[in-house]
Amino acid sequence: MSGAGAARRRFARAGVGVSGVILTLASQPGMASPMMCKSASGSMSTGLDSRPSNVTLRCEGLAPGFWKKSERTWPPPAAREQLFSSVFPRGGTGLYQSGTMLQMLTNDDPGMDPYSLGMHLVATYLNVLSGKISFLTVDGLKKMWHDFVTYGHYIPRAGTSWNAEALRTYLENTHD
Questions:
Q1: Where are the beta strands (DSSP E) in 110-172?
Q2: DSSP secondary-structure letter at 143?
Q3: Which residue from 10, 39, 84, 85 lies 20 to 30 Å from 124 (Cα-Cα)?
Q4: Residue 94 and residue 46: Cα distance in Å, rounded?
Q5: Beta strands, E only, the chain
Q6: With 0-12 CB in 10 A as exposed, 13-18 as middle and 19+ as buried, what is 166?
Q7: pLDDT per position as a tens digit, 41-80
């Protein structure tokens, strides 16, 4: 792990990156944010760990740049040419409706993928399928997307609502 990665993890363990609000404020362009190794609802709590002590937490998520390289093998059932909408239906843009998973990772038009939400959703999906992260599930990711496209926000826990930017920030921080 790089010195910067170790510093980010120490920073996260100190509790600064745990709150969604603080996480959003701390995530400045060009500034590395601490890696978030908790479920969406767990990211809102400090000092609580309901995970049994015999369960190993996997927190080795890889960035979209890793997954978009053609020589990388994707974990089944994911496929580069699979439609994004076959896993995450009902998106509002043309890319969300008819783009492939690979197109989602390589898109550079912010109008087609506002906040790069789809890109980070695909990377997180691949990280879950490959076992690189164990604190999220495919069903959990699908619920995040469903709630976001249906209601315009995702509620990780009662009283907290995440817009597209906050949801993207959370997903972005599940990988290095």
A1: 154-157, 160-162
A2: H
A3: 10
A4: 39
A5: 154-157, 160-162
A6: buried
A7: 444 444 444 445 556 778 899 999 999 997 778 999 999 9
- If we measure between CA atoms, which residue out of 159, 78, 154 comes closest to residue 123? 78
Please give the Cα distance from 97 to 59 (Å, whole number): 30
Longest Cα–Cα distance of the chain, Å, equals 45
23 C-beta neighbours (distance < 10 Å), count: 22
Residue entry with tokens 């249906």: 150
Q: Which residue has the tokens 């049994």?
A: 52
Residues near 69 by beta carbon (within 8 Å), at least 6 away in sequence: none
**The pLDDT of residue 22 is above 70:** no
Q: In DSSP terms, which residues pair with 160 in a beta bridge?
A: 157
Q: How many CB atoms lie within 10 A of CB 73?
A: 6
Q: Which residues pair with 59 in a beta bridge?
A: 133
Delimit the domains of the chain by residue range: 1-34, 57-172
CA distance 77 to 92: 24
pLDDT tens string 122-142: 999 999 999 999 999 999 999
Distance, in Å, from the CA atom of 129 to the CA atom of 113, rounded to the nearest integer, reads 22
Phi, psi of 157 (to 5 degrees): -160, 160
Q: Which residues pair with 162 in a beta bridge?
A: 154
